[in-house]
Amino acid sequence: MSTNKGKGLVGVSDFDMDQLNKVVQDVLNWCKNKVAEEQKYSKAMEEAFDFVCQKLRKTQEVNRLVRERTILLHQETKEEMDYLEQFFKDNIKLFQNSRFDKLMEEARIRVHQVYSTTDTHMRDEKLEEMNEFKKQWDEFKKSHEEKISDMMNRHLREETEMEAGFTTEFSQLMAKYTPKMDYLEQFFKDNIKLFQNSRFDKLMEEARIRVHQVYSTTDTHMRDEKLEEMNEFKKQWEEFKKSHEEKISDMMNRHLREETEMEAGFTTEFSQLMAKYTPKEFTEIQAASGIGVLDCADLLGDSMSNSRDIQSLRVFTATWNVAGKSPSSDLNLDNLLQIHRESDIYVLGFQEIVPLNAGNVLVIEDNGSAAKWLSLISQSLNKATNNDYRTLKRSSTTSNSFERKCSCSGSMFLQRTSLKAASSNFRSESRRKFKSCNCATIEPERKSYGKDSCFARQTSESNGYEDSSSSEEDDNTNCVAADISTVTPTSKNQHLRYSLIKSKQMVGIFVTIWVKKELVPLIGHLRTSCISRGILGYLGNKGCISVSMTFKQTSLCFVCSHLASGEKEGDELRRNSDVIAILKSTQLPKICKIPNANVPDKILDHDRVIWLGDLNYRIALSYHDTKKLLEQNDWDALLNKDQLKIEREAGRVFQGWKEGRIYFPPTYRYSNNSDMYAGDTINSKSKRRTPAWCDRILWYGEGIYQNSYTRWDSRFSNHRPVCGTFIIFLRNQSV
C-alpha cells in the first residue's frame, strides 16, 4: 500500500514539472520576442536617424549648389546686361564718323564749290556755322549716351534688387514650412524652375502620395494635419508667385515707358537741333546749287529712322526628336511654345517625325505627321483666334496617311498627305511672295542708295522672280491633298496671329517657321537647302535642312540637323564630319536678280545663324559613372565629359559658334512614357544607352543674345525637347 502511494506522488510531481516547464518556456519566448522587437525598433530608429542625417547633408549640399548657381546666374546676367549696354551704345552711334562725317564733308565741299568764287566771306561764315553745328551735335550725342547708360544701369540695379528680394521672400516662405514638411525637400533641387506650374504641381502630388504612404496606416490625424499644411503652403506659394509676377510685369512696363520717353526726347531734341541750323547754313546752299547739299530729310529721315530702328526680334527655337511617333489631337504645346511670353518668330525642328524604315527612307516620305504637328502648333500660337480655325476638318490632321489608290501611267500608288496643301491653311500670304526677291527697285533721283544694293527701300510689288530650284513643300505627281480646304490663304487666313512661312520635310527631319502676321511683309529671299548624310552618306535618314531668309536688312539662317548616332569611341568623329560636310555642301539657290547683291548662299555668310537638332554627341563616361554624377546633380563634371564641348574646345568642330550654359538634365534616353532613363529599366548592356545631352541649340554671328536655354519635360518621346529663346538685333545698314 505504501508503494502505491509513493507512485501516486511521483505522478503528480511529473505533471507539475511539465506545467512549470511550459510556463518557463512561454516566459522565455515572450522575453525573446520582446528583445527582438526592441532590437528591431532600435534598428529602425537608427536607420531613421541615418536617413534624416543623410537628408540633412543632401539638403545642405543642394542649398550650397543653389547658392553657387544663383551667384553664377547673377554674374552671367551682369555680363549679358553689359553686352546689351555696349550693343546699344554701338547702335546709337549710327551718326558716328562713317555716316555723319561723310555728310558733313560733302556739305563742306559744296560750300566751297558754291561760294569760293563768289563770296569768300559767306563761305567762311557758313563753314564756321557748320563747325558749330558739329560741336553741338557731339555734345548732344554724348549727353544722350550718358542718359542711356544711366538708365540701363538703373534698370540693372532694380532687376538685381528684385531678384534679391524674391530670393529672400522665397527663403522665408520655405523656412516657414520646411521644418514641418521635410517631404518637400526635393522642391529645393528644382527651385530653378520655380514658375513652372506643371513641375510644382507634380512635386506637391508626390508629397501628398508620400504623406498617405507614411501616415494612412499609423496616424490618420497626423496625415490630415500634414495635408492641411501642404494646402496652406500651396495657397501662400501661389499668392507669392502672383505677387512676384505682377512686380516683374510692372517693372518691365515701367522700363518700356521710360525707354519710349527717352526715345521721344531724343527725337525732339534732335529735331530742334536740326531746325536751329538747317535754315541758316543749308537752305541757301540748296537754293544756290539746286542739288540739296545736305538734305535735312536725308539726315533726319534716314538716320533718325535708323536710330529709332534699333530693332530686335524675339526668336523662339526648339528641337525635338519624337522617335517616330505621330501626335494625337489632344497634345497641348502651350508650355513648349511658351505662349505666355510671345515671340516674333517661332522656329521648330523635329527629328524622326516618321519611323526611319525603308518605306519612308527609300520610297515616299509620309507627310501625315508633319500636317498634324502644323495643326497642333497653330492651335497654340493662334489660340485667341481658333474659332475660325476650328472649322477645319479634323480628319485632315488625324489620319496617318491617305491610302486612296489612283491610276497614274498605268501604276498604282499609295496616296499620302500633301504638305503643300496642309501648309496653305496656316499662311496669311502666298508662299510665292516669301520665295521671291523683294529687293527694291532703285529710284534714280535717290542718290543715297547704290545700284547694287539688295536692301534698298521696298516697293509694294515683288519682281516675281521665284526660286525654281528648290522643292520646298512641292507636291510630286504621286501625292494628293489631305482633306483640308485649299482656299486662297489671303482670303481665309487673315484671322491668324501667326502665319506659317516655311515647312520643309526630309524623311524624318522637319522644320517649320512661324512669324507674327504684321512682320510677314518684311521677310524675303526665303530659300531652303537639304543635305543628306544618312546611309552610305547619301540617304535622308540623317542630315539637315537649312532655311535662309532676309528680315529687312539682316540675313538669317536656321539649320535643323540629325547627325550620326552611336556612343562607341570614335563616333563623335563621324558627327564632326557631318557638320563639316553640311557647312561645306550647303548651297542656297540664288534668287536675287540684282548683281552683286548681299544675299548669302552659304550658312556662315549670314548675319545671324542658329543651329538646332539632335546632334547626338554623347558623354564620354561609362553608364555607371554617368548615373553616379547624375544622382549628385554634378552638371559641371558631366559637361566636362560632354563630347560636343570637348570637340569644340579642341577646335575640331563648330569653331566660332556659341552655346548657352546648360542647367538641365541630359535629354536622352528615357523609357517610354516615363521620367526614368532607359538604362534603369533595361538590363541588356547592348540596348542600354548612357544618358546624354543629344539635343542642342547653338548660334553663330554677332548681335544674338540668348534669353533662356531649357528643356520641356514631356513623356511623349524618349527624348526631351530643348528650347532656346533669343533676342536677335537687326543690322543697321549704312547706305
Describe this structure in words.
This protein has 735 residues and is an alpha+beta fold. It has 2 domains: 60-310; 311-729, 4-Layer Sandwich (Deoxyribonuclease I, Chain A). Helix content is 49%, strand content 14%. It contains 19 helices and 13 strands. The protein has helices at 2-92, 97-115, 120-177, 185-189, 197-215, 220-289, 296-307, 334-337, 358-363, 368-381, 386-389, 395-398, 419-424, 431-435, 489-492, 571-585, 623-631, 635-640, 643-649; strands spanning 312-321, 345-351, 404-408, 411-415, 498-506, 509-516, 523-532, 543-551, 554-562, 608-614, 695-700, 704-711, 722-729. It has a 6-stranded mixed sheet with strand order 5-6-2-1-13-12. It has a 5-stranded mixed sheet with strand order 7-8-9-10-11. Strand 3 and strand 4 (411-415) form a beta hairpin. Helix 2 packs parallel to helix 6 (220-289). The longest helix is centred in the N-terminal third of the chain and has 91 residues, at 2-92. It holds the Pfam family Exo_endo_phos2. Residues 415-734 form the Inositol polyphosphate-related phosphatase domain.
Shape: globular
The major β-sheet equals: 6 strands, mixed
Structural class, please?
A: alpha+beta
**Class of the largest domain, according to the CATH hierarchy?**
Alpha Beta
